[in-house]
Amino acid sequence: MSRTGWTTVADVLAAGCILLGALLALVAAIGVLRMPDLLSRMHAATKPQVLGTVLVMTGVALRLRDPSVVGLLILVVLLQMATSVVSSHMVGRASFRAGQVRHDLLVVDELSDEPVRDEPRGAP
């Protein structure tokens, strides 16, 4: 395959990655609006958003194909993956301590001071 053929394939893959990443960001935004409580909203915001960011950065790297830009995009992805986990954990803990979590929607509650009931955990 010629050089022009490889760049065309890379451009098509880049467009697909960027489109799929943008779609995942849209799914995350819809999930934030539609979920009933804070913990569900956090889950909807972090999971598809991080994967969407990874796909968009992959698409940009495939499109630009410059080693310095690719290195910077890898740094962006690594920092996004590290900070989204830590920030969602901290927001979840703070909201639990502030009493903003709906306890009726929790399956397992490991943070409350109430005694543990003898309920089965997980699937039967």
Automatic annotation (TrEMBL):
One Pfam family of this chain: PhaG_MnhG_YufB
Matching InterPro entries: PhaG_MnhG_YufB
One example GO MF annotation: sodium:proton antiporter activity
Keyword Transmembrane helix attached: yes
Transmembrane segments: 12-33, 70-92
Keywords: Membrane, Transmembrane, Transmembrane helix
Signal sequence annotation: none
Family: Belongs to the CPA3 antiporters (TC 2.A.63) subunit G family.
Protein name (database record): Multicomponent Na+:H+ antiporter subunit G
